[in-house]
């Protein structure tokens, strides 16, 4: 990767930032566009929010829909994927005894969402343990199928998992779920901008993803996609001016002239929509810099670093390369105090990377973006080698 790419970001020069997967990082030109929208809002708030907001909000929907292979009336802007999934999940008509089938690799916030919904509805979560290492799409599908019963109402999967950075092959299971009358709800928080995404081809009933992570728009920009024939059951989390008592049948119009699905989610009181309005600029930046080519280089560097770490530790990987998120890898490390390692990496080496315990494994989750470099990977491996006493230099006390 070219060192020139780092100059496009506002990241601190004294920190080796290897944690793009958590919150992303916004390029300077995109951030400047974000600030320009905020300034326009402050210069004439009534004109911005009362006269032109509906028109302005439509543009990111249209541009993003073209990027993601779906209709512009099927996608709506939300502040993050957790919010989008909460809107959809809390709209589902679940009853006592209904089952939500999911895996042991899901994001903690959504596990809490399902626990909340189950407490309210009497439904229950059924968690499948995905066998590791993940080396077969059919093996993955078989593990999920084994959990399906006649009470399964929802299939909830991450497309790219947060703790383990696995790329789940979800398409076949989504198609099978539809055949069985099971709603498919996909957590795509890490997917947009990370891998090419065609929402129509994937076929999920509900899919929510972040634009502020790998698409590199500002924080507070994400989307909720709902298939047209499912949109009628979606209710907003916040009832405000966008809500209407009119029919939600296909072709119905909402309070602001869009579909009720769009208007009820989009118009929920006074808020700053600047991050969402900047999504077209983020896509423009990516196109100008041929970011899919950049991403391919990042993938190679991530996989090379993963292999080097495996050689250093002797620990097996969580998956074969085709099931690894291209730019994000979960690297098993020897038994340790993960918080101690995390804190010392930052305090002593100024390396920002998540280190945590997942089930019975200690993991360092590496993200590689266009501003990263091979010398930074060398610095990470040297630091971990020292702290984990892997034959580099004796380091910290291990738990």
What topology emerges from the helices and strands here?
Blueprint: E1 16-17, H1 20-23, H2 28-43, H3 45-51, H4 53-68, E2 75-78, H5 81-89, E3 99-103, H6 108-121, E4 124-128, H7 137-145, E5 152-158, H8 171-179, E6 183-188, H9 199-202, E7 206-210, E8 222-226, H10 260-266, H11 274-277, H12 279-288, H13 291-313, E9 328-333, H14 338-349, E10 351-352, E11 355-358, E12 361-367, H15 374-387
Parallel strand pairs: 1-10, 3-4, 3-5, 5-6, 6-7
Antiparallel strand pairs: 2-8, 7-8, 9-12, 11-12
Helix pairs in contact: 2-3, 5-6, 13-15, 14-15
InterPro entries: Aminotrans_V_dom, PyrdxlP-dep_Trfase, PyrdxlP-dep_Trfase_major, PyrdxlP-dep_Trfase_small
Protein name: Aminotransferase class V-fold PLP-dependent enzyme
Keywords: Aminotransferase, Pyridoxal phosphate, Transferase
Describe this protein's structure.
It is a single chain. α2 packs across α3. The protein is an alpha/beta fold. The relative contact order is 0.15. Helices cover 40% and strands 15% of the residues. It is globular. The strands form 3 sheets. A 7-stranded mixed sheet has the order 2-8-7-6-5-3-4, with helices on both faces. The chain has a 3-stranded antiparallel sheet with strand order 9-12-11. It has a two-stranded parallel ribbon with strand order 1-10. It contains 15 helices and 12 strands. It starts with 15 loop residues before the first strand and ends in a 12-residue tail after the last helix. The C terminus is likely disordered. β3, α6 and β4 form a beta-alpha-beta unit. The protein has 2 domains: 257 residues, Aspartate Aminotransferase, domain 2 (3-Layer(aba) Sandwich); 98 residues, Alpha-Beta Complex (Aspartate Aminotransferase, domain 1).
């Amino acid at each position: 990767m070219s060192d020139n790419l780092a100059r496009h970001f506002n990241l601190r020069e004294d920190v080796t930032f290897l944690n793009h997967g958590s919150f992303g990082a916004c390029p300077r030109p995109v951030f400047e566009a974000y600030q320009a929208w905020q300034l326009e809002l402050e210069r004439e708030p009534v004109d911005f929010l009362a006269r032109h907001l509906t028109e302005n909000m439509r543009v990111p929907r249209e541009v993003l829909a073209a990027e993601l292979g779906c209709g512009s009336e099927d996608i709506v802007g939300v502040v993050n994927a957790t919010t989008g999934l909460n809107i959809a999940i809390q709209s589902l008509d679940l009853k006592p005894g209904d089952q939500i089938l999911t895996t042991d690799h899901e994001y903690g916030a959504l596990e809490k969402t399902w626990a909340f919904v189950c407490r309210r509805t009497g439904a229950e979560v059924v968690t499948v343990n995905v066998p590791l290492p993940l080396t077969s799409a059919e093996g993955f599908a078989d593990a999920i199928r084994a959990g399906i019963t006649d009470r399964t109402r929802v299939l909830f999967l991450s497309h790219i998992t947060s703790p383990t950075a696995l790329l789940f092959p979800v398409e076949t299971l989504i198609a099978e779920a539809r055949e069985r009358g099971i709603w498919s709800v996909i957590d795509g928080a890490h997917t947009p901008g990370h891998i090419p995404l065609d929402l129509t081809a994937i076929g999920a009933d509900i899919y929510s993803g972040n634009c502020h992570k790998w698409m590199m728009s500002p924080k507070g920009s994400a989307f909720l996609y709902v298939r047209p024939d499912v949109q009628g059951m979606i209710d907003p989390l916040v009832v405000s001016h966008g809500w209407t008592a009119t029919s939600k049948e296909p072709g119905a119009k909402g309070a602001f002239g869009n579909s009720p699905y769009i208007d009820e989610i989009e118009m929920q009181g006074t808020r700053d929509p600047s991050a969402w309005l900047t999504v077209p600029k983020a896509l423009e930046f990516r196109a100008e810099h041929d970011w899919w080519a950049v991403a391919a280089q990042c993938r190679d560097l991530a996989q090379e670093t993963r292999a080097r770490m495996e050689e250093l530790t002797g620990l097996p990987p969580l998956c074969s390369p085709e099931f690894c998120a291209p730019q994000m890898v979960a690297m098993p490390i020897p038994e340790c105090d993960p918080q101690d390692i995390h804190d010392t990496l930052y305090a002593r080496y100024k390396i920002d990377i998540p280190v945590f315990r997942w089930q019975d494994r200690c993991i360092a989750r590496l993200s590689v973006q266009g501003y990263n470099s091979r010398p930074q990977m060398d610095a990470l491996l040297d630091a971990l080698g020292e702290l984990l006493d892997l034959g580099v230099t004796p380091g910290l006390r291990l738990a």
